[in-house]
Design brief:
The chain is of the alpha+beta class. The protein has 2 domains: about 30 residues, no CATH class; about 140 residues, Nucleoside Triphosphate Pyrophosphohydrolase, CATH 3.90.79. It contains 3 helices and 11 strands. A 4-stranded mixed sheet has the order 7-4-9-8, sandwiched between helices. A 4-stranded mixed sheet has the order 10-5-6-11. A hairpin with a 3-residue loop joins strand 1 and strand 2. Helix 2 packs antiparallel against helix 3. The longest helix has 14 residues.
């Protein structure tokens, strides 16, 4: 492995660049520094999931709340700050506790984005949720013991399930079992 880079920008949009570095083509963030995913657990043992139409998937997608870090003119934004903002915006919930449970690459062969997964607890509903003006988010609160079956039912009914939802469910279940 070498530190020398032959990186060239092949194309760029508002949020991403498509680059080639030597023989490797990949996508890198342009207007943000990372992504946060939030596994929110209510005090009565429900996971808060969202559903929204995703153009690339051409489908309604079941997801955990998520968002970009540093996309609000703050390149050094802390992922915990971004997670609080995104949770409130998408679900209407505010969390008393937001804990980083892991971080890593979602697809290291195709992009350079790093995702930070957080567990949100001590939730209080203080807003409507639903996303910003560009989003039309539906909020679902599913009892943890029923969540796996509910997600599979959504998938069988034709909705797409973001794979990261399963990771969020894993951390939510682990938290609830150890509570």
């Amino acid at each position: 492995m070498t530190d020398k880079t032959d990186k060239k920008i092949l194309a760029e949009g508002e949020y991403f660049r498509f680059v080639i570095d030597g023989h490797w083509e990949y996508i890198e963030p342009k207007k943000f520094s990372g992504v946060v995913l939030i596994a929110p657990v209510t005090s009565d043992g429900k996971i808060v999931l969202i559903e929204q139409h995703r153009i690339p998937a051409r489908s309604s997608v079941i997801e955990i709340p998520a968002g970009l870090v540093g996309d609000h003119d703050d390149a050094d934004e802390d992922p915990i700050v971004a997670a609080h903002r995104e949770l409130l915006e998408e679900t209407g919930y505010q969390a008393r506790h937001m804990e980083v449970v892991t971080a890593g690459a979602p697809s290291a062969g195709s992009n350079s984005v790093i995702i930070t997964m957080l567990l949100a607890t001590g939730l209080e509903k203080i807003g409507p949720g639903g996303g910003d003006d560009s989003e039309n988010i539906i909020v679902h609160e599913i009892p943890l013991p029923e969540a796996r079956g509910w997600i599979e039912t959504q998938r069988a009914g034709g909705k797409t399930v973001d794979l990261k939802t399963w990771v969020g469910l894993y951390f939510a279940e682990k938290y609830w079992q150890n509570k």
